[in-house]
Each structure stands twice: as structure tokens, then as C-alpha cells.
Amino acid sequence: MRSGRGKMATPPPPIRPAAALLLLVLAGVLASAASADLVISKADRRVDLTSHIVRVLASLKAENVGPDPVSQVLLPFPNIQAKNLAAIRAFGSEGKVKGQSTVLPIEVVQPSGAPPELTFFSALLPKPLEKGKTLYLDVLTVFTHSLQPFPEEITQAEAQLVVYQDSAHYLSPYPVKAQTLAIRLPGGRVESYTRHPNAKLVDSELKYGPFHDLPPFSYLPVIVHFENNNPFAVAKEVIREIEISHWGNVQITEHYNIAHGGARLKGEFSRIDYQSRPYVRGVSSFRHLIAKLPPRAHSIYYRDEIGNISTSHLWSDSMKTQLEIEPRFPLFGGWQTTFTVGYGLPLEDFVFYSDGKRFLNITFGSPLEEILIEKLIVKVVLPEGSKDIEVSAPFPTQQQQEVKYSHLDIVGRPVVVLEKPDVIPEHNLYFQIQQHILAQRAVDADYWFLPPVCGLYCLHAY
Ligand SMILES: *[C@@H]1O[C@H](CO)[C@@H](O)[C@H](O)[C@H]1NC(C)=O
Ligand SMILES: *[C@@H]1O[C@H](CO)[C@@H](O)[C@H](O)[C@H]1NC(C)=O
Fold first, then answer.
1. What start and end residues bound the annotated signal peptide (predicted)?
2. Domains defined for the chain, CATH in brackets
3. In terms of pTM, does the model score above 0.90?
4. Which one of 131, 289, 340, 347 is at 20 to 30 Å from 308 when CA atoms are compared?
């Protein structure tokens, strides 16, 4: 690899040994690992490296050139990448031109003859792609922990540099006729990038390709070493309690333990330096986080171990309520802080009733922007007497039930506990909890500030 050099003479970033190994392995992979009936006539990938969460959108045009219908598209990833994959979604549409896409179910598969160094996913087509037909497929993948700080330790005034590795060729079990790769960088310094003949850096976009007529499993490593000072906000654990209260309210309480997951701070921290020129003497640190709360959130508070913090800013419109959370000190690499955010939401926006059933429909993830949560625990505290509880979530979660007692309770309130590792903003989707209400409670309807009709939502519930 030849490297472009910036002003500063830092040594070149290390190549992960696994990447080099992979090359050898892939050279030996037979195209027979997959059914060879598909040909990718065009593959355009866009990689977004502007935050610490890496998003890759691959837009594929596939043709069935074989004699038999094809019912799945295989999507392989090197294991070193797959282990950091937090979300994968595929949208497909069949036809001569790209039309309305549908979401395709995805599963992990193990095609016979597949090398153990690769993890295969399969996107299942709603109906088999017949001979000669074309499929448009968009695959969104989101990776965590894929920007490696290099150097690993920096001083207070230094910018944070990170390394990203990928393949300039789209890794596919099918032949690929034409393809491009575009990598969007956050702006700022680009220390180096792999200079393949058709590499081009324009402003903050790095392009590779076009490449033509590549065989299955082509792999061409690229490394980019660049400046990224965006908040690497990583929560080790978040506990999010959603309590359906008796007072016409849904009460949310979120406990955070957040660290700056980027390059660690070395040397002394000088607050005087920082305060005189925070953007220079603390360029890699972050001092606030934005929480996007639902539009009618009220009674919002934010506190840490010491007490309420009133310096946070709040503004709202009809679409959202935005809270700026400002910890007591800026966060540098390796530093952490714990705090609690609480707010109330109107019951009628999230809880619906029909046929003696109560139905909660609310978002799963944290309202904090661009945060990675290594372990998210969502606890939904239901009113006393809730029975036959059913949970429906758009992704797998570990589920269990507890009971919570407060002084007015007789039998205690059922608590549904949902746990999920590696939660990213893409997981901030709606989930539902449906319960039977005991007769006695159903009679108490007024007490619940019930909306008179639940409209469309009821239809969705069953
Ligand atoms: C913090 O604010 C909350 C909500 O406004 C309030 O209930 C609580 O008493 C306050 N706590 C302190 C220590 O001021
Ligand atoms: C949950 O609420 C969202 C937003 O209002 C809505 O788009 C979605 O259809 C609802 N889901 C169900 C199952 O009712």
C-alpha cells in the first residue's frame, strides 16, 4: 500500500492481520459456494464515516441469468466486520426500473462450501426471481466499533484520528459487472488513504472505481486514516423505565452511563486552557448531547449524582421536543459520566384501548442522538391487574417479567423487561405491549383518561 501523507509524520496505521489472512482465503473460495445464477450488473456502495457509527448502503442491481428461479440473495461479510454489525436491512423491488421497494426478511445462513472466515446473510425474496428478470436491492448495514482511534492516546489539544478498513470491491458470491465505492468523511484532515489507481479524494468524499467484470469474492483492501472529532458517545448500559401511571401519564426515566469511546486523553487536563479556547483546547471532547423527545413531553428533568442540572436547554415545536444535555465537565476519550433523564408523556399518545385490552405503542431506543448503547434494558411497568401480556418488537430481545410494588399496590405491578445488546439509533422503532385488563379495572375507565376511540391503532393491534 502506498499512502498519501499529510503534514504530520505519524507512522502508517496497522493493518489488522485478519484482513490480510482473509485475502488468501477468499482467493481460494469457489464460486460454487453460492448458486451462481445471479449476476450483479451494478453495485454502488456508499459508506458514511461522519459519525462513530458506520453506515453502508449498497445499491445492487441483480439479474437472474440461470435457468431456475432464485429465491434469495446471499450477502457475505468477513467475520471481523460481521461481529460489529448492529443492524442489517434489505429493501427489494423487481422490474425493469427501480420501483416501490418492500422490506425483505433477513436470516443468517451457512451455504455449503462457504469459508468459515465469512458470515452469510440471506435476503429472502417475496416471490422467486424468474429467469431473465431483474431485481433492485438496497442493503443498509450499520457497524459499531469500526473506527479505530490511531493514535490511541492524544493530548487535550490534539484532534482525533481514526482508521477505517474495508474492501474497494463489493464482496459478493456473484460476479459483479460494474461497481463503485464512495466513502463520505467528516471533513478535516485526511492523513492517508490507500491509493489504488482509480482512487480519488474530492473535498471530503473518497471514491474508488468504477471497477468492471470482477469474479465472485473479489476483495481489495482499503484503509483510510482521517480526522473525526464527532462525539463517540458510548453507553455501557442504559436502563429505560416506562411506567404507565394511574394519572393519565406515561412516565419515562432513563439512567445513563456514557463514556467517550474515542482516543484516550493522555497527560493533564487543564480546565483553564479548555475554558479559554474550548474548540482548540478540547477539539476531540464533547460537552453536550441532544435528546429528541416526543412533541408533547413535559415535566422534563436532567440530573446527575450531585443534583438537578438546570443549564440544559430545551426547545420544542409540533414535531419534537429537543433537550440539550450538558454534563458538568467536557468528556474526553475514556472519560465517563452518569446521569438520569426523566419526562412525562400524555397517555393518549401511546396507550390505546379496545375490547378489554390495553395496548402500549412506544419507541424502544434512547432519544439521544448518535449514541451506541452496549446494553439497553427497557422496563415497562404496567398497571396492577394486567394479564395475558404479549410483547411484539421489531427485532429479537431477551424478555422476562418482574413485579414492582409501590405503597398503593396490593398485588404489585407486572414489569416487562426487554434487553438488547448494541442498540443504535436504527433500533429506535416502535414496539407494542398488549394486555388484558381485569374486569374491575376496565370499569375504572374514567380514571384512566381514556381516549373515546382508538381509531386506526386498534386495527393494527390484532
Ligand atoms: C429535581 O427536579 C425534579 C423535577 O423538576 C424535582 O422533582 C426534584 O425535586 C428536583 N430535585 C432536586 C434535588 O432539586
Ligand atoms: C405505533 O405508532 C406509530 C407512530 O404513531 C405508528 O406509525 C405505528 O403504526 C404504530 N404501530 C402500531 C402497531 O399501532
1. 1-36
2. 17-21+38-227 (2.60.40), 233-461 (2.60.40.1730)
3. no
4. 347
